Amino acid sequence: MSLLEDLLAVELLLANDILARASTRPALGAGTGAVLDMVQSAIAAADPYPDAVHGVLRTRFPSPNGRTGGVHRPHGSPGR
């Protein structure tokens, strides 16, 4: 599960970058818009370091039992 969460965090950051560079913002669905807002708030809340943003995003993923905060690792701990 850890690798999947890492991949999802990277994919979300890439999607955010692509949309930020678009000349016009495409119409987004409610779910996509909410996820994009979550990514942008994670970027704003984290230290200006990529691993901190990645860590914040991972803590916001749903856990297997359906609640958010499924993954929590102290800052700087390995992702494996």
Write the layout of secondary structure elements.
Blueprint lengths: L1 H20 L8 H16 L4 H10 L21
Helix pairs in contact: 1-2, 2-3
What does this structure look like?
The chain has 80 residues and is mostly helical. The chain has one domain (2-59). Helices cover 57% and strands 0% of the residues. The chain has 3 helices and no strands. The protein has helices at residues 2-21, 30-45, 50-59. It is globular and about 35 Å long. Residues 70-80 have low confidence and may be disordered.
Main attributes?
single chain; mainly alpha; 80 residues
Summarize the structure.
Residues 70-80 have a biased composition (Basic residues). This protein is mainly α and 80 residues long.
Q: Describe the global form.
A: globular
Query: What level of helicity do the residues show?
Result: 55-70%
How large is the share of residues in beta strands? under 5%
Alpha-beta classification? mainly alpha
Q: What letter string, H or E per element, gives the SSE order? A: HHH
Give the N-terminus to C-terminus distance in angstroms. Answer: 10 Å
* Number of spatially distinct domains: 1
Number of E-type strands: 0
User: Which runs of at least 5 residues are low in confidence (pLDDT < 50)?
Assistant: 70-80
Q: Give the number of helices.
A: 3
The Rg value, from CA coordinates, equals: 13 Å
Average pLDDT level: 76
Largest sheet, in brief, is: none
Biased composition (Basic residues): 70-80
Region (Disordered): 60-80
